[in-house]
Amino acid sequence: MFSALIILAFVVRLALMPISVHSDLFFINYFPNLIYTKNVFDIFSFTHNDLSKLNVSYYPPITFYFFGLFQYFYHFLSQSFSPWMTQIYNLRMSGVNGQSYDYLSKAPNEHIYKDIFLAKFPYLLFDLSSIYVIMIYAKKHLLRKNAILVWLFNPVILYGVYLMGQYDVIPAFFVLLSFLLIRKNVYLGIIVLGVAAAFKNFAFIFILPTILIYMKSPIERLKLAIVSFLPYFVFLCPTLIHDPTAAIFSFLPKVYLSYRKPLEDWALYSQYIKYGLFMLGYGVFLTMSFSLKSRDKWRLAVGLCLASILLFFSFAPRISFHYLLWGVPLIIIWYKNSKTSFLIILIQSISLASYKLLAIQLQLGLFAPINLAFSVSTTFNGYVNNFFPYRIISTMGYFIFLFTNLFLITQIILNLLFSEPALVKNIEKKRERKQLIFQSS
Q1: How buried is residue 262: exposed, middle or buried, by Cβ count under 10 Å (0-12/13-18/19+)?
Q2: pTM across the whole model
Q3: How confident is the model at residue 241 (pLDDT cuts 50, 70, 90)?
Q4: For 390-399, which contacts have Cβ atoms below 8 Å and span 24 or more sequence positions?
Q5: How far is CA 20 from CA 135, 226, 366, 400, in A?
């Protein structure tokens, strides 16, 4: 049964890969194509003026070179992939800012299924690699074998990666691998965590607590901080040389730069309040990383890093569904019971989807490669709204998502404070008191 479920999970993946697409998949791939069509090796300097006018930036620099490397091999497998990406890029730069079905209708491709499959192929490789890493966790008795099924049937991966085409499974793999390596070699683990951060900046949230937990001297912390930033810095060097302003712009997450309309009144103030609550909570977690002592530093690091990303989910002004994959590796590691971890991921997914996946391009419109008519179909929430106010469902979903994350954070912090770390801290305090009494006597 276990083997049959694994086979089923990969059959589902292979079936979804060629038939669904979101415009994000095009955005990820048409810039790396410029390496071969226009000899562009510094994408941020090349597109800085164009993208800054659109209030967006490309993903971190390693992404450009990484997908460009894969596209080198695509030239041997598909004669249509590169020309298709060029067409879509030209449409975007000419002012077309539509969804996937807009590009599919204006840039038709006879080999669309093969090319979409190739665009998602790197995800499948890192998905397989993640399963292998989880198997190592299981062999070391850090996880149960069933954790593999939690990963394979994870709704965030199936939707965010194989339906939408976002690449978050790649940094998620490096997060999984980094915490495995940190147990034996902190520097190597931090470098790998830095690679995850080089793909998507969220992993920097994990780096600071980990450094504070494992290193006690300021010099050691500075060394680890430099090591963690090296992967990002190395791939950013071409832009730093040509255009430092573009380099700074590239470091900012594009999702927080692009707003359809200016924020004002409560929308503006609530954003600042959320930023403030996140920074306050994260500051508390960093203080705990600095002050709490534990014989099991690894467990302390996993717990505080998981609490940090859950805090981000709770108070980030803007969040997309595929961001949930950022926390999946740590949820699986922290909650060793597979049923518990899967239930948490399922509740997060359903509640967030209830108020974030409302547009047609995030529902049936994803299957526009099969039939463009899907792009004008009725949304699920629109259909429900004919019988029952969907706003009630979406509001409930928002509060369920918020309170679930806050509950998990509270549970994790209490576990860390009133279990082994706090016990060690109390024992050390008692020893210090005994030493002071002995010295005074």
Answers
A1: exposed
A2: 0.90
A3: confident
A4: 393/354, 394/354, 394/355, 394/358, 395/355, 396/354, 397/350, 397/351, 397/352, 397/353, 397/354, 397/355, 398/351, 398/354, 398/355
A5: 30, 40, 5, 29
